[in-house]
Amino acid sequence: MRLQQVRARLLHREEGGRYVHLVFAMEEASWRILPGQFVQLQVRDAEQYDPFLDRPFSVFWTEPGRLGLLVLPRGRGTRWLVSRDPGTEVSLIGPLGQPWPRFPRVGLVGGGSGIAPVVHYLRTYPDTVAWVRLGFRGDIPAFLPKRIPASSPVEFWSETDAPGARRGRVTDAPLPLDDGVQILACGPPGMLTALKEILPSTRYYASFEEVMGCGFGICMGCLTPRAGGGHFRTCREGPLFRADQVDWTRLTQDVR
Amino acid sequence: MNTPDLSTTIGQVTLPNPLLTASGTFGYGHELLESFPVQRLGAVVSKGLTLRPREGNPRPRIAETRCGLLNSIGLENMGLEAYLHRVLPLLRERGVRVVLNVEGRSEEEFYALAEKVEAHQPEILALEVNVSCPNVEGGLWFGQDLGLLERLVRGMRARTRFPLWIKLTPSGVDVREEARAAEQGGADAVVVANTYPGMAVDVARRRFLLHRGMGGVSGPAIHPLTLYWVHEVVGAVGIPVIAVGGIHDFDSAVAYLLVGARAVQIGSALFVDPELPYRILARLPDYLRDQGFSSVSSLIGSLRLDRPATQRPQT
Fold first, then answer.
1. Which residue range is the domain that position A148 belongs to?
2. What's the pLDDT at B171?
3. Rounded distance, CA B265 to CA B128, Å?
4. In chain B, which residues have their Cβ closer than 8 Å to the Cβ of A2?
């Protein structure tokens, strides 16, 4: 894996639902960031060192020289990032993580920040996608439908009453498993665990969010417990893992 | 004016420049060979290696703190043997200079590591001995028991001819005393210093941010603390001092050289700015020329409280 550290310049910012959509221009136009990969983004002014660590973001969409990210403001870093004005430059490291595999037929599930890689996959490999289920807490961001290819088989679900969405969680209705479909999912821990309870573990792939030190395998800070003992580096071997390769008990127990 | 000489010597070891990576902040060293010109670094210091593979601590292992971070990785590593067979050849074939960082959980394990290295005669510059990790020998810190520290260095010295760099803890009573004990034991250099023990708490959930509760603080926040100890240790021992702690830009690296460090190690800044060592390296010749120095060696130790202020050198 060859990674690069480049300057990214904020071009555009728009809010929708709980999300902020950020569009960056990158000096490296030749980058190809595949679905499921992420970047590490600086969330501070260049010569201030707080917050010190970069933040990992799944890529929402790419075009030559352009990069779209979907940010849920939660802590100091993300709040700093979503309040920048266009023109702001930050350091960006990428592409990071293993791309999601390209299967002949997939179902996609996304929630929270996990909407981003699902949409990137759908845009990149539209012909392979049997169905998509996206879960929200609150309204569907107005900018989202524009980023989804027309007549894609996408269902929106929301835990609150939201226009254009079914009320409930993505696991509230059966997920179609016919035609040997493989399921790729990214979202909050509760969603990934709920999916594990209802999906065959050899056809279910979950992409995990972790606090990361570096994002490219040199700090050994982020890990996903491996079934049968040991662990994976979430950033380097993942962040997507087949469900039967993960020790789900340790995944939830570790955190004190 | 000629191009300034960037080389530096640490005992028997000569490095083409004084910029190294710090153990534990650059993986095993081979991860970024495709991404950066790693062979241009003075040397790469390996992840801490133990006699047998270690799994490390449960997550969370990382917590951000103001201007830095806490880590509690717990010495996860593939073991010395696997490193020598699987990783070292990848680095050597690219011309990367390597310092091996080793860590024992007991005196006996340290000696076994020294013997194993001696038996393999790997292509390395030096052994960096981590005596600054907690819970060794019934809860003692090697760095806090000066008699044990001196005996340990002496024991390793008897078992290997490789240069021994002793990496000290800044949490002892006095790092100068640790350095003297290491020197007495026969160390070739001391590395000042490891991370500072620390904690962070999530008040809303009333729990520690790290699984183990405590960890080591690194990052820009610790730079002034370690700069003081480097200055003090340089004045206290005759062996070379290598500085590590909180380097985050050109100035914070050069500050260590000015107070007398013969080389510097860049640590957690590599997580967010992996290009930093190469930028520092690129700027060093101009800085030396602007300040009137012909070499890194002449810059080293030119700012000391225990010496009259140096005149601007004539070139």
1. 106-253
2. 87
3. 12
4. 34-35
* Most B-contacting residue of A47, A223, A233, A255 (CB-CB within 10 A), to test interface: A223
pLDDT tens digits for B240-296?
999 999 999 999 999 999 999 999 999 999 999 999 999 999 999 999 999 999 999
DSSP reduced 3-state for A241: strand
Residue B137, pLDDT score: 43
Asked if B73 and A219 come within 8 Å (Cβ–Cβ), the reply is yes
From chain A, the residues in CB contact with B26 under 8 A are: 218
**Of chain A residues 39-58, which have a CB less than 8 A from chain B?**
40, 42, 47, 49-54
- Together in a domain, A142 and A55: no
Q: Where are the domains of chain B?
A: 8-299
Confidence of residue B155 (pLDDT cuts 50, 70, 90): very high
User: Is B208 close to A256, i.e. CB distance below 8 A?
Assistant: yes
Domains in chain A, number: 2
pLDDT averaged over every residue in chain B = 93
- Residue B140 makes CB contacts below 8 A (sequence gap 6+) with B148
Q: How far away is chain B from the Cα of A3, in angstroms, using its nearest Cα?
A: 6
Mutate to test the interface with B, among A49, A90, A209, A249 (most CBs of B within 10 A): A49
Distance from CA of A250 to the nearest CA of B (A): 9
**Tokens 């290997």 sit on residue:** B160
Nearest in space to B24 (alpha carbons), one of B257, B315, B296, B270: B270
Residues of B with a known catalytic role? 133
CB A23: neighbour CB atoms within 10 A? 18
Which class would CATH give B8-299? alpha beta
Sign of CA dihedral A120, A121, A125, A126: negative
pLDDT band with cut points at 50, 70 and 90 for residue B160: very high
A236: domain CATH number is 3.40.50.80
Predicted confidence band of residue B106 (pLDDT cuts 50, 70, 90): confident
Q: Which of A61, A96, A131 corresponds to the end of one domain?
A: A96
Closest CA to B227 of B252, B195, B262, B191: B252
Q: Which chain A residues contact residue B52 at CB under 8 A?
A: none
CA gap A212, A207 in Å, rounded: 14
ipTM score here?
A: 0.95
**How many whole angstroms separate alpha carbon B248 and alpha carbon A47?**
9
Q: Which of A89-103, A120-134, B139-153 has the lowest mean pLDDT?
A: B139-153
The reply to whether A252 touches chain B by the CB within 8 Å rule is no
| pLDDT number for residue A253 | 78
